[in-house]
Amino acid sequence: QVQLVESGGGLVQPGGSLRLSCAASGSIFSRYVMGWYRQPPGKQRELVATITNGGTTIYPDSVKGRFTISRDNAKNTVYLQMNSLKPEDTALYYCNARRLSTNENYWGQGTQVTVSS
Predict the structure, then answer these.
(1) Which residues are within 8 A (CB) of 87 and not within 5 positions of it... i.e. 6 or more apart?
(2) Average pLDDT of 67-84?
(3) What is residue 26's predicted lDDT score, i.e. its pLDDT?
(4) How would you label 26-61 residue by residue, b for 16+ Cβ within 10 Å and e otherwise?
(5) Nearest in space to 100 (alpha carbons), one of 33, 11, 14, 3
(6) d(Cα 7, Cα 111) in Å, to the nearest integer?
(7) CB of 8 within 8 A of CB of 22?
(8) Each residue of 24-75: pLDDT tens digit?
(9) Residue in 38, 66, 70, 41 with CA at minimum distance from that of residue 55
(10) Can you tell me the distance from the alpha carbon of 37 to that of 46, in angstroms, rounded to the nearest whole number?
(11) Exposed, middle or buried, 109 (CB in 10 Å: 0-12/13-18/19+)?
(12) 3-class SS at 30?
């Protein structure tokens, strides 16, 4: 079992920045592909970024160049640096831990990000 706790959400003006953190516990952090997903109001959950233990990252075009995912295996933590935020980035952001070889998939409770003037 993996427990995930997100933090760092809040209200920010358009063009501003936020840094989300996700602390993991309960298993060997480095075994998991870590990711961030978001669910805008009234919409389905969507991918924001993923990072493998080796540091390979994936971003959709909607956030590429503005968001950066990173991980610190020593601290069992994954981060999402969000710059140049737009109102359409407003969503509940979820941390995810996934390990395909064992069919494991864990979610945090989510942290709200609101981009508004």
Answers:
(1) 14, 115, 116
(2) 97
(3) 83
(4) ebebeebbbbbbbeeeeeeeeebbbbeeeeeeebee
(5) 33
(6) 6
(7) no
(8) 998 888 899 999 999 999 999 999 999 999 999 999 999 999 999 999 999 9
(9) 70
(10) 5
(11) exposed
(12) helix
CA–CA separation, 9 vs 91, rounded Å? 10
Question: Nearest CA to 63 among 108, 113, 99?
Answer: 113
| pLDDT digits 0-9 by tens, 98-108 | 998 989 999 99
CB atoms within 10 A of CB 70: 15
Nearest to residue 33, comparing CAs of 6, 54, 52, 56?
Answer: 52
Q: How far apart are CA 39 and CA 54, in angstroms?
A: 27
Signed CA dihedral, 56, 61, 65, 71: sign only:
negative
